[in-house]
Design goal:
Blueprint (H helix, E strand, L loop, with lengths): L1 H15 L5 H7 L2 H7 E2 L4 E2 L2 H11 L26 H10 L7
């Protein structure tokens, strides 16, 4: 029963830490140390952030970032970019019109 409570606390802590794949993050954590840090009275892992910090620093791709997800806007001109900025400036300076797409 104690193991089940620990697993529940660990899953909750990983959800709070915004782990994309909790199973992969668990593989990188030292479970023996975390089990010793588990407090039965509060149902939490003491100083979990400190245990997770090295994993988060070395494997940041396993966690959701703080940046908001880009919003895709429908509509607009939706024209393909066929020239780079240098080429466009060169054509403008030479008085050449870019080809129509």
């Amino acid at each position: 029963m104690e193991s089940l409570k620990f697993d529940h606390a660990l899953d909750g802590a990983l959800t709070t830490a915004k782990a994309k794949n909790p199973k992969a993050v668990k593989a990188l954590l030292d479970m023996d140390v975390l089990r010793k840090a588990y407090d039965e009275k509060t149902g939490t892992i003491v100083n979990f952030d400190e245990h997770l910090k090295p994993v988060k620093e070395q494997n940041d791709y396993l966690f959701e970032g703080d940046k908001p997800t880009p919003r895709i806007v429908a509509g607009g001109r939706n024209q393909p970019i066929t020239t780079d900025a240098f080429e466009a400036a060169l054509m403008k300076g030479a008085g050449i019109k870019p080809p129509e797409s």
